[in-house]
């Protein structure tokens, strides 16, 4: 039998679950079984659990047949447990390193108590950590072993599932199970202590508990929070039945009075906190919740216990609560007063237009900070014009980017009167960033398409790294995420990152990226036409160099010398240099680039708006740490990664994938440290050899998971036309890939030969 059974209840926590499972399975104390219970998750939570179960026999995967909530899921996991002690975690929490070893040592030192309590820390969405508040009690207990009657203040410990180990015989004998529904941990947490004969404590942080912004019952307002009152009513009824007739030491009074006093104080604090939390109790329900909570608090008030002034009447509560709200509003007004001068007449106009009817056929598009017409929004717009012509699309662009709008496309200038009107009236907002000033309104649907698969830290994850580009910051990113209704994903990796880095209540759609449809639909003729348009020499091997955006002081040395590389490659190769759109033209390239372009060794393609065209025209991709490598993998063409400043980059920007690990699925192809190494890879043939092809196949399988050429149609039908289901993904064997430049030339040669055969001497005519 294992020493510990750790039960993880998980529902739609794909962005956090791997860290949770790893924190258990990577403990130095390995005598543990992990029972992970998927509560009918709508995302890949269940698949992640199954993946881990295949890798580690200590993990047992359970899948609930119907959504049941955290309480029944934990109970189901505990019913399968075989360990000496039961520990419970939520799917977004983590065990501290060494926690199980410390727990095991403490249990043995205390003679195997029924319950062992330990400390925890709370981590908010910014990953700021703060202590639990239980540390003083746990430290004061020391090595003592006690029960609740001897130490009534033990009931002041956080009533949670994840801050204690319970002996399995105690669980099965006393039945401190979890309830069905919200606040399911109240009967378990208090019941495990009230029925325990021996309780011990460990003054050590063993669990990190993650606060969620969206997606849980606790963070969703509604009348389900009234259940908290019922939980405490049930708890006091259970307390009355535990020690009937128990007397004080002097033979008089209620022997349970100390327990009642501590429990009543905890209940009062918690119910009032729920009442004052607008994320739980909406104003329309506040009076009803007050009455229910007040009745419960009054009914179980021990003799001599004070009654909070706010509970004397609802009028008293409103008066005190109103004063608190007024103070907060005054403080906010003072903070905002400095910004009031920046509120323009157009913003006020926007506020008025928010009360006018939405235009059911109006779609507002934006891309690349509203300075381009490209990317995923552009692909969605093109597909909408094809299959939903009744919709009217308008592109929002800044004044300095009006020239980027294609001929015939409707556009509006950001900040203009018409912009604020369309922003207020459009039913659909489609962007890979955000629309300046957007507030959102009921009935408006916001689609976040994203700009690519995340390699660099993004959203909440980015604030830990000093090299993050200047911008609105993670706080503003969260405000934007709260406006999203949908966001797009090209692979499971992205879906997990989005949930963790942008925690909110949007729905992630496994559609693939619309802009990558081109890699499945382009023909040999398209590839040849693009190469001719860019001026690629016939027969030359075109290498697209697309570096990522770097935040560097002026005058810093670029990571790669393009002139040196072009000379080392020689005339058989032709470099297409594409500076990152956020870097500005030619930034990061050698000053001789212009001269090299005139010589034909380098083509500067930074001004071309659609990187998909550049990828289709190239025989190979040379990049460093740009997300374009995830998209380019769709083409199944060689990828060479320039690794010169990898260590500095990952430490200053943060990365999700170790491109240099050499593991299948992480590394997309050949790794090269400098210009000579890159040239050597191309001259030796390693760039297109079997080892590189094998790595590329694994990388493509992992990151091109949903890209099958139908992404844009999926998005238009699901989001803009409101169809219930996504078009099914094509199986990998049925997906098409655009031909390589070599294959396109061979196809042209065959076609030319066939034409000469049909029209040459002796051809049969008519």
From TrEMBL:
Keyword Ribonucleoprotein: no
Protein name: Glycosyl transferase
Protein's organism: Streptomyces chrestomyceticus JCM 4735
Family: Belongs to the CDP-glycerol glycerophosphotransferase family.
Membrane topology: Peripheral membrane protein
One GO molecular-function entry: CDP-glycerol glycerophosphotransferase activity
Main location: membrane
Residues in coiled coil: none
UniProt domain Glycosyltransferase 2-like: residue ranges: 5-102
């Amino acid at each position: 039998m294992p020493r510990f059974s750790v039960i993880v209840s998980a529902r739609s926590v794909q962005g956090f679950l791997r860290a949770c499972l790893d924190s258990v399975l990577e403990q130095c104390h390995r005598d543990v079984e992990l029972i992970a219970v998927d509560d009918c998750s709508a995302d890949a939570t269940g698949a992640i659990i199954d993946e881990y179960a295949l890798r580690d026999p200590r993990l047992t995967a359970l899948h609930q047949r119907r959504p049941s909530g955290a309480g029944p899921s934990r109970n189901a996991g505990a019913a399968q447990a075989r360990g000496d002690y039961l520990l419970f975690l939520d799917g977004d929490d983590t065990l501290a390193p060494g926690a199980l070893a410390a727990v095991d040592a403490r249990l043995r030192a205390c003679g195997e108590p029924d319950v062992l309590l330990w400390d925890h820390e709370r981590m908010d969405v910014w990953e700021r950590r703060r202590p639990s508040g239980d540390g003083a009690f746990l430290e004061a207990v020391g090595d003592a072993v006690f029960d609740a009657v001897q130490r009534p203040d033990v009931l002041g410990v956080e009533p949670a599932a994840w801050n204690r180990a319970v002996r399995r015989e105690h669980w099965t004998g006393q039945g401190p199970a979890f309830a069905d529904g919200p606040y399911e941990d109240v009967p378990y947490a208090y019941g495990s202590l009230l029925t325990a004969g021996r309780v011990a404590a460990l003054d050590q942080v063993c669990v990190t508990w993650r606060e969620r912004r969206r997606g849980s019952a606790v963070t969703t307002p509604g009348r389900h929070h009234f259940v908290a009152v019922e939980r405490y009513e049930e708890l006091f009824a259970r307390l009355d039945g535990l020690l009937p007739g128990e007397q004080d030491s002097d033979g008089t009074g209620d022997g349970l009075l100390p327990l009642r006093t501590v429990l009543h104080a905890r209940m009062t604090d918690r119910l009032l906190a729920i009442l004052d939390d607008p994320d739980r109790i909406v104003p329309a329900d506040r009076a009803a919740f007050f009455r229910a909570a007040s009745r419960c608090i009054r009914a179980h008030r021990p003799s001599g216990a004070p009654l909070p002034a706010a509970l004397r009447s609802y009028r008293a509560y409103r008066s005190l609560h109103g004063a608190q709200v007024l103070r907060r509003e005054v403080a906010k007004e003072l903070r905002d007063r400095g910004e009031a001068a920046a509120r323009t007449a157009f913003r006020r106009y926007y506020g008025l237009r928010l009360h006018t009817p939405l235009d059911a056929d109006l779609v507002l598009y934006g891309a690349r900070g509203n300075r381009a017409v490209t990317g995923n929004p552009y692909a969605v717009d093109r597909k909408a014009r094809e299959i939903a012509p009744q919709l009217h699309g308008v592109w929002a662009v800044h004044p300095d980017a009006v020239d980027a709008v294609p001929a015939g496309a409707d556009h509006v200038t950001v900040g203009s009167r018409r912009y604020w009107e369309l922003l207020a009236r459009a039913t659909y907002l489609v962007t890979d960033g955000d629309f300046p000033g957007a507030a959102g309104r009921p009935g408006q649907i916001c689609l976040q398409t994203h700009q690519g698969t995340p390699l660099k830290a993004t959203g909440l994850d980015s604030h830990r790294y000093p090299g993050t580009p200047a911008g609105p910051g993670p706080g503003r990113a969260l405000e934007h995420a709260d406006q999203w209704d949908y966001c797009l994903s090209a692979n499971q990796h992205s879906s997990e990152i989005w949930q963790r880095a942008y925690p909110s209540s949007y729905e992630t759609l496994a559609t693939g990226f619309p802009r990558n449809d081109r890699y499945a639909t382009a023909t040999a003729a398209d590839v040849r036409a693009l190469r001719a348009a860019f001026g690629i020499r016939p027969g030359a091997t075109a290498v697209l160099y697309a570096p990522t955006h770097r935040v560097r002081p002026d005058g810093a040395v670029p990571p790669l010398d393009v002139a040196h590389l072009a000379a080392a490659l020689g005339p058989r190769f032709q470099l297409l240099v594409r500076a990152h759109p956020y870097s500005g033209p030619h930034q990061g390239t050698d000053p001789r680039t212009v001269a090299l372009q005139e010589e034909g060794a380098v083509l500067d393609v930074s001004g071309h708006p659609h990187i998909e065209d550049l990828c289709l025209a190239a025989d190979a991709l040379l990049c460093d740490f740009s997300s374009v490598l995830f998209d380019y993998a769709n083409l199944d063409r060689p990828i060479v990664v320039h690794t010169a400043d990898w260590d500095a980059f990952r430490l200053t920007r943060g990365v999700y994938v170790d491109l240099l690990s050499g593991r299948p699925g992480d590394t997309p192809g050949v790794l090269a440290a400098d210009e000579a190494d890159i040239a050597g890879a191309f001259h030796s043939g390693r760039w297109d050899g079997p080892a590189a092809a094998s790595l590329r196949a694994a990388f493509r399988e992992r990151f091109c998971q949903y890209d099958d050429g139908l992404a844009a149609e999926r998005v238009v039908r699901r989001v803009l036309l409101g169809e219930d289901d996504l078009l099914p993904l094509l199986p990998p064997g049925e997906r098409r890939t655009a031909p390589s430049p070599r294959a396109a030339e061979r196809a042209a040669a065959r076609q030319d030969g066939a034409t000469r055969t049909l029209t040459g001497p002796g051809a049969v005519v008519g």
